[in-house]
Design brief:
Function: Has an important function as a repair enzyme for proteins that have been inactivated by oxidation. Catalyzes the reversible oxidation-reduction of methionine sulfoxide in proteins to methionine.
Pfam family, one: PMSR
Family: Belongs to the MsrA Met sulfoxide reductase family.
GO molecular function: L-methionine:thioredoxin-disulfide S-oxidoreductase activity; peptide-methionine (S)-S-oxide reductase activity
Active site: 69
Structural class: alpha+beta
Number of strands: 10
Oligomer: single chain
Helix content: 25-40%
Strand order of the largest sheet: 9-8-3-5-4-10
Largest sheet: 6 strands, mixed
CATH superfamily: Peptide methionine sulphoxide reductase MsrA
Number of domains: 1
């Protein structure tokens, strides 16, 4: 997450430091980022729904996933109707290494992850996966999202049980067969991993820092794409960690 300390007042310099060769404005207001080195993020687009979903239960259900910087992943899911909470944290490693400083080394097994608690009567596990693959991140990048490189930025789903793991695995296979992306999906499924909540200063970061260059360039487009591609599932006022704490 280097370069995030920049302020938007130096936006031209920030774009250069972020390694962006070009910002390409797409139809409908979307933005594609062409990065130095020739790589290109997949354009946000609505991919097909999963062919099957987990069993709907009374009460809430929980989904844990990772797709690059947790600021943007959290920020996007906070705008989804039916999401009760979205919390930034770490998953994939041990409790002893579940800190920002240690996770950023890329040596802990952790990914920056988000725990999404949702009401399955309003939004299903499968639809949340559809949003994840459509607008939240580029699932074809290996150990990277945009300028952030390392295993801590990998695309991953951390199922809480066998049924979630099966639905996620089948969905990845489905998207591959249907050619939803121009490159193979790199998302891993990591069953049996514990989620650890991140430090307080990471919570609601995208909401609290909309003019920060990293947020403005990389994270806000995810929320914009959610609104554009899933208007029926988008809510203007996000559900914030701070609201629940208060």
């Amino acid at each position: 997450m280097k370069y995030r300390q920049k302020t938007r007042s130096a936006s031209v310099g920030a774009i250069a430091h972020l390694g962006i060769a070009a910002l390409v404005v797409l139809g409908g207001g979307g933005v594609a980022l062409k990065l130095n080195g020739g790589s290109k993020l997949e354009e946000a687009k609505q991919v097909p729904k999963p062919l099957h979903d987990v069993t709907t239960t009374a009460g809430t259900q929980t989904l844990v996933l990772a797709g690059g910087c947790f600021w943007g992943v959290q920020g996007a899911f906070q705008h989804v109707v039916g999401v009760v909470s979205a919390t930034a944290g770490y998953a994939g490693g041990s409790a002893a290494t579940a800190t920002y400083e240690m996770t950023e080394t890329g040596q802990t097994g952790h990914a920056e992850a988000v725990e999404v608690v949702f009401n399955p009567k309003q939004v299903g596990y499968g639809q949340l996966l559809q949003i994840f693959f459509s607008v939240v991140h580029d699932p074809t990048q290996v150990d990277q999202q945009g300028p952030d490189v390392g295993k801590q930025y990998r695309s991953a789903i951390f199922p809480l049980n066998d049924e979630q793991a099966e639905v996620a695995s089948d969905y990845i296979t489905q998207l591959g067969k249907e050619g939803a992306f121009s490159r193979p999906i790199a998302t891993s499924i990591e069953l049996g991993k514990t989620f650890y909540r991140a430090e307080a200063y990471h919570q609601d970061y995208a909401y609290n820092n909309p003019d920060q260059p990293y947020v403005y360039i990389y994270e806000q487009p995810k929320i914009d794409a959610l609104k554009r591609l899933f208007p029926g599932q988008y809510r203007e006022r996000p559900v914030l960690v701070a609201d629940r704490a208060g």
